Amino acid sequence: MPTPIRSVTRHSLRRWVLPLLLLSGGVYLAGGSALAPAAAGLAAGTKPVLRVSVVGHGTVTSRPRGISCPGRCRARFARGTRIRLVPHPAVGWKLSRFAGACSSTRACAVTLKRSASLRATFGQKPPQLPSAGRIVATIHISSAPHGLVYASGAIWVGQHESSTVARVDPGTNTVVARVSIPSGQPSRFAAGAEGLWHLPYSGSALYRIDSATNRVVAEAAPPGENCCIPAVGAGSVWVPKADDGIYRVDASSGAVVAHIPIGNFLGSVFGFGSLWGTSGGDVVRLDPATNSIASRIPVDGLSGADPWLGVGAGALWVGFGKKLARIDPSTNTVTALIAIPGTAFFLAAADDAVWVVGQSHIGLYAYSKLWRIDPTANKVTAALTLPKGDPADIAVGAGSLWISLFSEDKLLRLQPAAAG
Description:
Layout (H helix, E strand, L loop, with lengths): L9 H14 L13 H8 L4 E7 L2 E6 L4 E2 L4 E3 L4 E9 L3 E8 L7 E5 L3 E9 L8 E8 L4 E7 L2 E6 L4 E6 L4 E7 L7 E5 L2 E5 L6 E5 L4 E6 L10 E3 L2 E5 L5 E5 L5 E5 L5 E6 L2 E6 L2 E6 L4 E7 L9 E5 L2 E6 L2 E6 L4 E7 L3 E7 L4 E9 L2 E10 L4 E7 L5 E7 L2 E6 L4 E7 L4
Parallel strand pairs: 1-8
Antiparallel strand pairs: 1-4, 2-3, 2-5, 5-7, 6-8, 9-36, 10-11, 11-12, 12-13, 14-15, 15-16, 16-17, 18-19, 19-20, 20-21, 22-23, 23-24, 24-25, 26-27, 27-28, 28-29, 30-31, 31-32, 32-33, 34-35, 35-36
């Protein structure tokens, strides 16, 4: 029979007795009764807690079960348990992101070593846009179709890897002629009263194509390396050069008649009696009468972007990034800055619509898209997901839209949907 403890001071109990009893698995009073269940719990340890909060409309559940928030937003799990959190957006909503113990735009997992918390944010989906049109023909164009233009009742397609330009008859949707380009990789076109001109991707040459004979009939060679997009207007061809401004070439003689040293001049187009392009963060308007800058129009977010310009519906349109700027040529001001649900690559403007080809992302996946912008409402009113193939250009002509797919050797013909 053990010798009873006759006298225990608080100091000796705290220093010697309690640690020994705790290590033995519990605390007992003399005589064998339990001191307190909480002390036993302290020795055994507690399970960590996972706390979840939800912003917006949706539910988050866990695997293994325990969380179903809103409702059950707090649960204990064994230490080291790997817990998968699954989002369930409400109708018309989508998961924006998880934040906190895990960070993801999809389902995420937490290995619970200690108590933790996370937040799921759900956002409203944008309204579903009606279809922008339908594909009515797919035409095989070999050798990486690139730039497009509609001229002389035909669609002309630069074949980037074969030094030829294909002529497509909209009446039969077939290639009816191929024009050999003397040098350089076929790239961009300009067409108007001054004729059909082609600017290869490399070199310095500029070529005029005769649509009656399907041959190159004239050549000019402004100094410097070709880049960007040419334009025609005021009896001239306007040829941008890498970091060297733009050269004016007389369309009749092929002679260089002016050089405007403006640095990089991107996205050139002729309209409203002027040549338009971008330089830095400005849209630049050049006066053909003086070969000088008539106006600089600052556009928010344009600096460093890769712009594309078009003329239609009484305005100049500039697509860049996820924006489309509308410029009033009578006041040289930006009158609208339209949000695009993706990244704009190319555009074509007509009297009743502006068409933008670009790319949108859903999660980790990218999709080529066509968007229709209503110039009366200044907003995107229709969209269409395009087949795979890296779109390289868009043109309007013969009552249709035409889009080249560079990596798939295809030319798409689309029937635009009626404005609704």
